[in-house]
Amino acid sequence: MKKGIYLPNGEFIAFQDDSLTDVLFTRSRSMDFQTVMGLLPNPDPVLKKKSIDISVYKDLLIDSRVGGCVRSRKAGILKLEWFLDGGTSRARKEISAYFKDLDIYRIMSEMLDGVLFGYKPLEIIWDRGKFILPKDIIGLPQRWFGFDEDGKIRFLSKDAPMQGEEVPEKKLLLVTSEASYENPYGKPLLSEVFWPVTFKRGGYKFWITFLEKYGLPYLIGKVPVGTSDDKKNELLSSLSKMVMDAVAVIEENSSIDILSTQGKGNSSLFSEFLKELNAEISISILGQNLTTEVREGSRAAAQVHQTVREDLIIADKMLIKKAFNTLIKWICELNFNSEPPEFKFIEEDDPQTEWAERDDILSKQITFTKKYYQKRYHLEDDDFEVKQEIGFKEHTFSEQKFTPEQQVIEDLIGRALEDLDLSDHKDFIVNAVKKANSFSEIEMTLAEIVKDVPTEKFEELLKRCLIASDLWGRYSVKKNWNLQK
User: Fold this and answer.
1) What are the pLDDT digits (tens) for 280-294?
2) Among the three residues 293, 325, 348, which one is the final residue of a domain in this structure?
3) For the chain, what is the domain count?
4) Does residue 330 lie within any of the structural domains?
5) What is the distance between the alpha carbons of residues 387 and 427, in angstroms, rounded to a whole number?
6) Entry pTM
7) Position 154 in a domain
8) Are residues 449 and 310 in the same domain?
9) What is the pLDDT of residues 197-224, one digit of tens each?
């Protein structure tokens, strides 16, 4: 029935329907909503089934395969360098200086525990000086915290061990992995390896028992017919000691035969079983198996197996950057009241050398701004100064009759052709560069013209032509855009 009011003339005016803006479907209204003293239970299936605490996952790290895989995955992040980008120069400089005083890679390692356990709380120890900045960031045990029905984290203290205490604002960094409205505790990666590690430990126990029973050679004592039971037991005792000491004393008319076990028998089943469990652990943590299970294959395949999958590294970087950017936002709110800089990683494959070579070539024709160098090479204002050019050289191969953009392309190719005594081909090569649809076309054109040029000189010419092609493409797009405007 619609809600509304009747006007004096009898007309009914319905109230506006607020169902679109209201939150209708909540935990408290669901049919299966449960809390324990106001806290949501951790829905992890292993913890629920075994009725155990999340700290049980910490014991899994003792396993050599789990520990090794975890260290390998963390290394994918900890090997990267970081920097701050954007924001005001003052905020970026002050925060960078303080971050360098922190044990930041230890903090990153603890943040990555959020992937292993589903969530990781870290306390910020603020220090009041010229600015309010973090003196330290300390990772705390997951078992100290729970989540209420609103999805907010609470501290389970001695005074409030069941319902927990409210956490002050800007005091706790929370790193979560695959957390959701249904499950604010996140999805612990170690939950996936709980059973493989458990079975592995049990398998080792049975394997050792099997080896003790069937791995050693059988010692068979032979006695004359009619020997008394006491003599037989005495020989048996000597054989038992011989297994440990390899020394025994027997009567002259007795003998000992050593019977070795032949073949692998059922022991290979245990070995294959443990290998399979190790493979499951590696796949769960690293997204792939390790080279320890690779017996055959190419060197490239082995290299792939030695590295953490790129998508997992990207996911881990996102967690780290999100946590640090939250911290930086709080620092700026407390101190600078300005746009916060952004925490970023310097990628291992960042082509700094290639950019430097390209910039060195282009700097002969164009002048880069200080802002460009800061952005490209992650430099601060005080790190460098841009040299001012005193004058310009005159080039014999160009009369400067082009636009500045076209002149750069002419000069780039012209310089290389002068060095190779191929200036006669300049116009043809420049036109080929401008008309080429791909870098491979440029390479094929050059290969036809300069067949007898040494490899290193050909590579230099090709590099300059590719740079020229890239610049020409950018210039053409910009020119067409201006014409359309």
Assistant:
1) 888 888 887 654 455
2) 348
3) 2
4) yes
5) 33
6) 0.62
7) yes
8) no
9) 888 887 777 766 666 666 666 667 777 7
